[in-house]
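Re: the 664-residue chain
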Amino acid sequence: MKGKNVVSFPSAWRRRLVLAGWVAACVVVCARAGQIQVAQGAQWSAMAEAQHKTDKEIVAARGSVLDRDGTLLAVSRETYRVSVAPQEIPEGKVDETRTLLRDVLGISAQRAKKLVAPGRRWVVAPGLYPPSVREQLAGIRGVYAEREMERYHPHGDLARGVLGVVQEGAGLGGVEQTFDALLRGRSGREVVARDNVGRAIPGETFLVESPQSGGQVILTLDLDMQEIARQALQEAIESSQARGGDVLITDPGTGEVLALVSIRDGQTAGLGVVNTPYEPGSTLKPFTVAGLLDLGLASLSDEVDTGDGVWEVEKRVLHDTHPGGVMTIADALRVSSNVGIAMAAQAMTPGVQYENLRDFGFGVPTGIEIPGEVGGMLRKPDKWTGQSRASLAIGYEISVTPLQMAMAYGALANGGRLMEPHLVKEIRDPDGRVVERFEPRVVRQVVDGSVARAVSRVLVDVVEDGTGTQASLGLFKVAGKTGTSRTYTADRGYAGGHSPSFVGFFPAEDPQLVVFVKLENPKGTYYGGTVAAPVTRATMEAALAARATPLDRAQLLRSVRAETVTPASAEVRFASRSADPPAPTERADADATAVRGGPPVSSAGIPVPDVAGLPARVAVRRLHAVGLRVRQDGAGSILGTYPEAGSRMMPGDTVRLKVGRSDD
């Protein structure tokens, strides 16, 4: 019909199409729901769980390092780092939170204001805080305290080179690196609950696995000896303006390292004692002589003609500081004659000379329990030149570490037995039970005991009337040798610097300590006898004066009495050797006996020195120097002694120091 609109209704097939679409959509939705809830239910559940709970590692407390007497040298302590999420702090609580942070953390009001300032998502408070801080901040919304284990050294950098450091939980250098697996322990695990926006829920932390602390390492170091060595070396470096130096103290009978100090350019964290070899110079001469004696190639009384103290070997000229003409091998060692020792060494073939030095431990690492040790340099004979035999005899064309040198002198002090050095005494589990103990071990018998004793007697002469007189220790005989070698560098050669050194052991008759001292490039005087020997004496004096010491004082006292209380007719000083002008032999008076390095000891005893006003350590040294034992109760100014100054006492008697305030 024209002029009218016709309304058309959906056909049946269209209605069916719409219905099919709705049914298909429902099927897809149901299938997807089934897939999520059934097939992937565990996966999605785990993801939801992960969003609301965080699995966190609990760092274990690192094991402690202690000295031989149980004094802590390195220990881990629990600390906390405080962080703030300003956006999580509830409205109306900002001022209260800021005040709490200021009071608990001990920070300024300005710093506390910055921590809670809006607009920042996360702010870390500077520094680390004790566990008490965590307790006071517990439950405060928006404030987090994260546990960290800090490595703490109660005695500062006193033994930092030996100990090493800990970075990111791993030990680097020293004992920390060698025993890292033992010290680090085993980490634990905890679960932290979080809300829908990822914030930790206070009080919702669950321990899954407890951490296990690391074990303990007990060193052979003696803290007092370490401090003594450090102070003596530091004073020597300052007075001589040296670049640095090393001091090493060992027990010759066990090989234990009692003190180990290396300082370079003001830094104390190095290990020059084990990783910085040097040409030893004259301190090597005793081993040349010991080899000659042990092989029967010479005796101490054999003579060498040093002429005017100049000897040319393959276009290299050796010089003596003081020409001596004809002298015995003993005298050549005593006065440190380059020409005399080099001439005597010609009795050894290159192979024999090489083996002798290797037997004393040169050219190979000692195996001490810290990383970075080097073996020095000792070339095999097929690489020697025509000058090598003479050079090696007097300590050149060879490089050694201070540790190697100290252990070699320990062999002379120990009846010819070379000991393996030890820096670690025991290993203990976290509960303190000993799981491993390091016993003394003899590497080899280098020379016969009689040879070692004979050379040691000559080394006593070196200290008493040779090049090492400034190492003399009063009542106690010291055996030792000086050395003054030129500093060699690969790029500059012998550039004018020197390495003065002294190695000695005491008491010479029954050695308890070996002391090695070396300075690097001192200004002005650079001879070992004038720069290094006094450091050795100061170190030994301080060891005697220390209230706690590894020395056997009873044995020391017996050796003192044996030396000072002798028959009136006994010789106190032997006549000079053949190389020196004849000197009259001194004998004791009928009523007195000479005390080496001190005043006469009469039947009435020796006078007590006046030590009032002196520093405690100086006062103790002065009393020890005359043969008296010392008792000190407390700390403070030295007011005097009991008995009083001037009173007479016998060697070995005990003097008590009067200690108090100077205005008492």
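The mean pLDDT is 82.
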